[in-house]
Design goal:
about 100 residues; alpha+beta; SH3 type barrels; 5 strands; about 15% helix
């Protein structure tokens, strides 16, 4: 007879949602001091690439540098610690379309 945990029900890994795909560019959240009231930057200036991910509870990601030679970054990262970087080529296309529109 299996014991069911009411506070921590088992997670079906088939329903896990992977937010970032392999090869996608992301930024990493910076550590802040507790109760720090100064407005500071929340994500790094450096851009990394998703090297691989591991499905579990929770899903974690392994990062690598974008520059060549690609080097793995130590550790695994949660999805809440990562921010997707938008593709600049797509952003440029949107800006050009806005300039052509007459008001």
């Amino acid at each position: 007879m299996a014991v069911q945990h009411l506070n921590n029900p088992p997670i079906d890994t088939n329903q896990a949602v992977v937010r970032f795909s392999v090869g996608q560019h992301v930024r990493v959240a910076l550590q802040r001091a507790t109760f720090q009231r100064v407005q500071t930057q929340t994500f790094s200036d450096e851009v990394y690439q998703i090297a691989r991910y591991r499905i579990g509870n929770p899903i974690v990601y392994r990062l690598q540098t974008v520059t060549t030679p690609r080097e793995d970054i130590a550790g695994w990262w949660y999805d809440r610690e990562l921010l997707a970087v938008r593709d600049e080529a797509k952003d440029d296309d949107v800006d050009e379309d806005e300039d052509e529109f007459e008001y």
